[in-house]
Amino acid sequence: MAEQTNQIKLNKNSFNKVGANDVDEQEKISAPSLTFLQDAIRRLKKNKAAIISLWLLVIIIMISIISIWWTPSDPNAQHVAYANLPPKIANGIPGFTGKASVGGEIVDKYAQANVPKGTYYVLGTDYLGRDLFSRLMKGVALSLLIGMLATLFDLVIGIPYGIISGWKGGRTDTIMQRIIEIISSIPNLVVVILMLLLFTPGLGSIVVAMGITGWITMARLVRAETLTLKSQEYVLAARTLGESSFKIAIKHLIPNLSSTIIIQTMFSIPTAIFFEAFLSFIGIGIPAPNASLGTLLSDGQKTFRFLPYQMWYPAAAISIIMIAFNLLADGLRDAFDPKASE
């Protein structure tokens, strides 16, 4: 070992002189400077499940917007002669041939009903001969609208309530929190049923009924974050410089609460959609003949044993929406959390 060490000889060519440019190059920061939002987007892009969910929701929302002006047929038009037709498309791929088993024999239901040639119902028809695909498009649009309007109540009521409660503190905070506890002690279903009994069942009454209690979670989360933020140095500096509480909330609190607000909003929308579907399923939600995912599920379960496709499609739609929103919310929560593992 000693002999090998003695064989190593150093000379002037063994060293390279370090120049000023080399020092600057070594100290140069190679990674780009990112803002908090840019870093959150970078984290979100790494979550494949969240990105796929985002694109699924974009497609569903686009279809819902299109359904406002166009559907394959009138979703409420009844053609009793065409009742309970199975799905059929032009190419006739398996499962969409328009044929069904009757008495152990496969028959063409479209030929039996004398449906004009070239007339197809992609997802079949219901017990009144209404196009299920058109009703599903309208149902998804209506359910999304209810979910977003109910979530708007969370934002309009929950954010100011939480900020005021956390910012004021003391007796104000105690009184406001006791009010929340009283409201949250009453089951949501009881409140909704009472509201629907007082008002005419419909879109407006359902949104108001869900909005009465739906803002509580948002208010509690915003209050907890406000209690932490109001002791930060930049907030104390703003107060020292004489900034009003309103300006501090707009300039400092709400921007720093944005991640909590966005994440809770993404969880609130599917919760509202599912709750509306439950109300419509038990018959106290959207009145006939309007379609929502809940009414489609309610109609489909009545004939599920014999015509299962009438329930499969709305069930698949609400499942995809619920899973996509929850996966996207999980992805946003990880993206906005600086301590989340890469």
UniProtKB/TrEMBL annotation:
Membrane topology (UniProt): Multi-pass membrane protein
Keyword terms: Cell membrane, Membrane, Peptide transport, Protein transport, Transmembrane, Transmembrane helix, Transport
Domain ABC transmembrane type-1: from-to ranges: 140-333
Source organism: Lapidilactobacillus mulanensis
CDD domains: TM_PBP2
Protein name, per record: ABC transporter permease
Acetylation recorded as keyword: no
Presence of the UniProt keyword Cytoplasm in the record: no
Residues passing through the membrane, by range: 49-70, 140-167, 179-199, 261-286, 311-329
Top-level taxon: Bacteria
Principal location listed in the UniProt entry: membrane
Xref: InterPro entries: BP-dependent_transpt_permease, MetI-like, MetI-like_sf, OppC_N
Entry's localization field: Cell membrane
Similarity comment text for this entry: Belongs to the binding-protein-dependent transport system permease family. OppBC subfamily.
